[in-house]
Design a protein that fits this description.
Strand content: 25-35%
Number of strands: 16
Shape: globular
Structural class: alpha/beta
Number of helices: 10
Order of helices and strands: EEEHHEEEEHHEHEHEEHEHEEHEHE
Distance between the termini: 11 Å
């Protein structure tokens, strides 16, 4: 099968389209023929091995996993004898290392049936970004109905999910984005949109119960200024220094500052599926690239100008 492979840390130029062996599944395995995969900041951090802490998990000298990608959507090709939740032909989405390939292998816990009416490209957009937004707001931010929440980076992969999930949780939502994305962020449900090229949201005199930092361009001191005295800052993105600073401080007065890394949870994938099928959330797709152009897809995502998710198709 064809796959995007890298045997060293480096740039998108070091990613190669190669023929490799197909995954072999065991009695508990599920083999999925990939129809679409999405690109996440995680993918380019692993590609570059930066910040250095990435190498502690992924391999000090070279990546342990040769094939990039995690988010995936496709059709079940075959299942092991112990698998009861899926059968060949099922359309599924989920997360499994090695998604930038024609086939990916996993187990039942890695996949969920694809939401009805959703394309494979839209379904592939969900896993990491959707779980980050859901867990960041619901679990870390403890967002409650009626609270005021600000999403910095509202037009990005995580941000477009976060705006919609915050609305579904009953919050009053302010989205921060650039001029060209104002209409997009309004269209997905933001009550107020701030153009960061024209106005500094941390100096408007407005304060929020929860801030989800999904862009990573503001300091802790700036973000704290826009929090209520009892507010919570959830850092889903940011410089290594700011993330460590939040981890060390964790609380200043009654304000909480929480660095955050999502986990791919089957239970939360089901929750996202239900929100989508109820019409509360719709994945936003910016661009699609064929598998052979995966390096260009990652290079584009690194610019931090993507509107929603960047997708790789087979």
């Amino acid at each position: 099968m064809k796959a995007i492979v890298s045997d060293k840390y480096g740039s998108p130029d070091d990613l190669k389209l190669q023929e490799i062996d197909m995954p072999v599944i065991g009695d508990d395995g599920v083999l999925v023929r990939v129809q679409a995969a999405s690109v996440n900041p995680y993918d380019w951090h692993v590609m570059r091995g930066s910040p250095f802490i990435v190498r502690l998990a992924e391999g000090l000298r070279r990546p342990k996993q040769r094939v990039r990608g995690v988010d995936v959507a496709g059709r079940v090709e075959s299942v092991g004898k112990n698998v009861t939740q899926f059968q060949p032909g099922n359309e599924v989405f989920g997360g499994r290392t090695g998604a930038f390939a024609e086939y990916v292998g996993g187990t039942e816990r890695n996949f969920v049936l694809k939401p009805s009416g959703l394309s494979f490209e839209q379904a592939a957009a969900i896993p990491i970004a959707g779980c980050t937004a859901l867990q960041g707001l619901r679990d870390r931010g403890r967002l409650q109905p009626g609270q005021r929440v600000l999403i910095n980076g509202a037009a990005g992969g995580v941000g477009t999910f976060a705006v919609q999930i915050a609305k579904a949780l009953g919050a009053e939502v302010t989205g921060v984005c650039s001029t060209r994305n104002l209409d997009l962020v309004r269209s997905i449900g933001a009550d107020e949109v701030v153009d960061y090229t024209a106005e500094d949201f941390t100096r408007r005199g407005q304060q929020y119960d929860v801030i989800l930092e999904a862009f990573g361009n503001r300091s802790l001191s700036d973000l704290r200024r826009a929090l209520t005295p009892n507010g919570t800052l959830v850092l889903a993105a940011g410089s290594f220094t700011s993330l460590i600073g939040a981890l060390v401080l964790s609380r200043v007065g009654r304000q909480r500052m929480l660095p955050f890394l999502a986990t791919l949870s089957k239970k939360d994938l089901v929750t996202l599926k239900e929100l989508i099928e109820a019409g509360r959330v719709t994945p936003v797709v910016d661009r699609t690239y064929p598998l052979s152009e995966a390096p260009e897809a990652i290079r584009y995502l690194e610019t931090k100008h993507a509107r929603g998710k960047v997708i790789i198709t087979m």
